[in-house]
Design brief:
420 residues; 9 helices; alpha/beta; hypothetical protein PF0899 fold; single chain
C-alpha cells in the first residue's frame, strides 16, 4: 500500500510577518551587543543605543508569544491535514503470499462429504434410517471472539500516569548552581553587645563576636530503569514518558529529603529532622489553641527568637482542610470563604504550601527566603547506557540523577507547629 505524501501547509502571512519582524529585531539587537570589553561585558555606544536595546528586548518579549501562538495554529493545521489524508486512504485486503497453496482434494463442501459418506451410500430409501456423523467431516473450528480473533481496536494516545503529588516545597527556597562538593559558610554563633554611653576620657567597652564555619554536603539522588531497545525503537514516545517519570521520582525524593532528611550522609539535612544539627528549629504545640492561633504563635517565635520574617508555611492536606473548614460560631459562615470559591491559600497573610510530603499533624513555619538555600551541583539529568549484560540482552539502563545540598542558614528562623 503506497503512503500518500503530505505536503506542509503554507505558513500564514501573519506568521511569516511575525517571524520576519523577530529576525530583523534580533539581528539589530545582536549588532548593538557586538562591542564588548576584554571580560565579555557589552559596551553600548551611547545612551541611545542602550535605550534602543531595552526597547527591542521588550518588543521581542511581546512578539515571542504571538509567534508561538501563530506557529501552534499552523502546526495544528498540518496535523489535521495529515489525519484527513490518512482517513481517506482505502483499506487494502490482507495480502497472502504466492506460496499459499490449497489442497483441492481435501477442500470439499459439507454437502459433498455427506453424499460421499459410507452411511449415505448404504441408504436404500425403503424406510431405512441411517445416522451420518458430521464429526467425521473436515469441519473447521468455529470462529468466535473467545477463540482469540477479536475485533480491531486501536488504542488511543491517552496515557494516564500513576497518581503522584506535585513537588512544591523547593519553590519556597532560593536556589543557584555551584561547582563545589561542599558548601561552607560562616555562622555568627556569639554576639555580645557591650555598647554603652561613655563619659569623656573613660574607657570604651569591648564587644564580642564569634564566627563558626558550617559545612553542608552536596548529596546525590538517583534512580535507574532498564528498558529494551525494541521498546524504545517501536514506541518512540516511550523515552519521553520514561524520562518524565524518572525525573519525577528524583524530584519527589528531593522534596522528602528537604523536609525529612536526617543529615547523615548520603541524606540531606531536612527541616523536620530530629538530628542535633536541627535542634535550633523551634517548636510550638497546638495545646488549647486552634490552628490559626498556634500558627500565629509560631510566627511570633520566628520573629522574636529568630529575628526573621516568615515567608511560607507548609501544611499536610488533612491539616489544611481543618483550617479551610473553620466557621464563625454565630453565623456558621466559613472563615476562609464560601465553599463555592477557591478561597485564599494563605494564613496570616503568608503563602501556604499544601503537600502530602509534610508530616501529618505538623506544620512548618519559617523564613525560607532569607535563611535557607539550595545549591545544585548537578541539575536533573537523564542518561542511557549499558550495565552488565545489557548489550547482549538488547536493553539499555536509563538513569536519572541530581546533586544538591540544602543549607539551613538560621535554624531559629523556623518553627514546627505540633499536635494539629
Amino acid at each position: 500500500m503506497s503512503v500518500p505524501m503530505i505536503l506542509p501547509t503554507p505558513k500564514s502571512a501573519a506568521l511569516k510577518e511575525l517571524e520576519g519582524r523577530i529576525e530583523a529585531k534580533a539581528k539589530r539587537q545582536h549588532e548593538l551587543m557586538s562591542n564588548k570589553d576584554a571580560d565579555g561585558r557589552v559596551i553600548f555606544a551611547d545612551d541611545a543605543a542602550r535605550d534602543e536595546f531595552k526597547s527591542i528586548d521588550a518588543e521581542l518579549n511581546d512578539l515571542g508569544p504571538q509567534r508561538d501562538e501563530q506557529r501552534a495554529a499552523w502546526l495544528a493545521d498540518e496535523r489535521n491535514a495529515a489525519m484527513l489524508k490518512s482517513i481517506r486512504q482505502p483499506h487494502m485486503p490482507i495480502p497472502f503470499g504466492t506460496d499459499f497453496h490449497v489442497n483441492e482434494a481435501e477442500q470439499k463442501s459439507i454437502g459433498q462429504q455427506f453424499i460421499e459418506s459410507p452411511n449415505y451410500k448404504a441408504y436404500t430409501g425403503a424406510g431405512d434410517r441411517q445416522v451420518v456423523d458430521l464429526a467425521d467431516f473436515n469441519l473447521k473450528t468455529l470462529m468466535t471472539t473467545s477463540a482469540g480473533f477479536a475485533a480491531a481496536n486501536n488504542r488511543t494516545n491517552v496515557v494516564v500516569p500513576f497518581a503522584l503529588r506535585r513537588p512544591m516545597v523547593a519553590d519556597l527556597i532560593p536556589q543557584d548552581q555551584t561547582t563545589l562538593s561542599q558548601i561552607k559558610y560562616m555562622v555568627e554563633t556569639t554576639f555580645t553587645n557591650n555598647a554603652a554611653t561613655v563619659a569623656e576620657g573613660a574607657v570604651k567597652p569591648e564587644g564580642a563576636s564569634v564566627w563558626t564555619q558550617t559545612t553542608a554536603q552536596v548529596q546525590k539522588i538517583a534512580v535507574t530503569l532498564p528498558v529494551t531497545e525494541e521498546q524504545i525503537m517501536d514506541v518512540p514516545a516511550i523515552q519521553g514518558v520514561i524520562d518524565n517519570r524518572l525525573g519525577m521520582m528524583v524530584m519527589l525524593t528531593e522534596e522528602n529529603q528537604l523536609l525529612n532528611g536526617t543529615g547523615v550522609s548520603p541524606q540531606l539535612q531536612g527541616f523536620l529532622s530530629a538530628a542535633a544539627a536541627t535542634a535550633g528549629v523551634q517548636t510550638q504545640a497546638l495545646g488549647a489553641d486552634n490552628v490559626p492561633d498556634a500558627v500565629l504563635a509560631a510566627m511570633t517565635k520566628v520573629q522574636h527568637t529568630g529575628f526573621s520574617d516568615v515567608s511560607g508555611i507548609v501544611f499536610h492536606p488533612n491539616d489544611w482542610m481543618a483550617v479551610r473548614t473553620l466557621k464563625e460560631s454565630g453565623t456558621g459562615a466559613y472563615i476562609w470563604g464560601s465553599p463555592s470559591e477557591a478561597g485564599p491559600q494563605r494564613i496570616w497573610g503568608q503563602p501556604v504550601i499544601v503537600t502530602t510530603a509534610m508530616t501529618e499533624n505538623t506544620a512548618l513555619v519559617g523564613d525560607f527566603r532569607m535563611y535557607s538555600h539550595i545549591s545544585r551541583r548537578l541539575g536533573l539529568r537523564i542518561d542511557m547506557g549499558y550495565v552488565n549484560d545489557d548489550f547482549t540482552r538488547n536493553q539499555v539502563t536509563m538513569r536519572a540523577e541530581e546533586r544538591l545540598s540544602l543549607e539551613i542558614l538560621r535554624y531559629s528562623a523556623f518553627c514546627k507547629v505540633t499536635g494539629i
